[in-house]
Amino acid sequence: MSLTDKAIDQLRELILTGALPPGSKLPPEPDLAAQLGLSRNLAREAVKALAVARVLEVRRGDGTYVTSLQPSLLLEGLGGAVELLQGDAVALQDLMEVRRLLEPIATALAAVRISDEQLAEVKGHLDAMREAREDVERLNAHDAAFHRAVISATGNETLLTLLEGISGRTLRARIWRGLVDSQAAGRTLAEHEAIFDALAARDSALSQAAALLHVSNTEQWLKAHLRSGAPLPFGTPTRR
User: Fold this and answer.
1) Distance of CA 236 to the CA centre of its chain
2) Which residue, 164, 12, 8, 140, is CA-closest to 80?
3) Residue partners of 52: CB distance under 8 A and separation at least 6
4) Which of 26, 58, 93, 158 is deepest in the core (most CB within 10 A)?
């Protein structure tokens, strides 16, 4: 490990042990360096690295604070990373595989935890998708909101953040454009309806099966499209 890595680990350890709990202010740089037994330069580099990771927040004129350490904050960089992988066919297929592994189980969990209010929110987005069959932008927005509402019903913020990051807004939009152009959007809407019906029945196994069918069909469509050598709609050519 480099000296900077060791400095980062020392500062992270203070946060993990609760010596610097969420929301707390770090000591001034000289004091922090002395506390960690580091040079001021190494302490500064450690703070910078953890600020980039959203563990720390530097407030100009006020000091440096430990953030809330909420999963939605610490993992929000995942979505940005996924957007950067849009031109990599192998990475896209890997991401779809991860989604297939996680989302059906999450949907099954949602079926036993979803409230009437949350179910109504899912239905609202489903209705909006039906009304926007030819409008890719609206389809994409309500598709993302539909799945977000479903996964939110699990009450698991980490799972929600991971799945939202993996899905990627740009990838969703490109897939919807391809589905509309190939006149397969109706089938995909029917898959969303099946997910909703299973959730409404509070049937965990059926919800998992419906979600697995939906994600698997999307994954197969993406693989076939990539094998054809064609770029994703309004995207750049992919690396195969």
Assistant:
1) 22
2) 164
3) none
4) 26
* SS3 (DSSP) at 67: coil
* Tens digit of pLDDT at every position of the chain (240 positions): 688 899 999 999 999 999 999 999 999 999 999 998 999 999 999 999 999 888 999 998 899 999 988 887 887 777 777 777 666 778 888 888 999 999 999 999 999 999 999 999 999 999 999 998 888 888 889 999 999 999 999 999 999 988 988 887 667 777 887 787 778 888 999 999 999 999 999 999 999 999 999 999 988 888 887 787 666 654 444 443
Q: Which residue, among 190, 92, 99, 174, has the nearest Cα to 140 in the 3D structure? A: 174
Cα–Cα distance for residue pair 50/57, rounded to 1 Å: 8
Q: State how far Cα 75 lies from the chain centre.
A: 8
Contact 211, 147 (CB under 8 A): no
Cβ within 8 Å of residue 42, ≥6 positions away = 3, 4, 7, 33
| Phi and psi, residue 17, nearest 5° | -80, -10
Q: Give residues with Cβ within 8 angstroms of 122, minimum separation 6.
A: 114, 146, 149, 150, 153, 196, 199
| Residue 110 near residue 197 (C-beta atoms within 8 A) | no
The gap from C-alpha 197 to its chain's centroid, in whole angstroms, comes to: 25
CB 30 within 8 A of CB 40: yes
Tokens describing residue 192: 């969303």
Burial class (CB in 10 A: 0-12, 13-18, 19+), 1: exposed
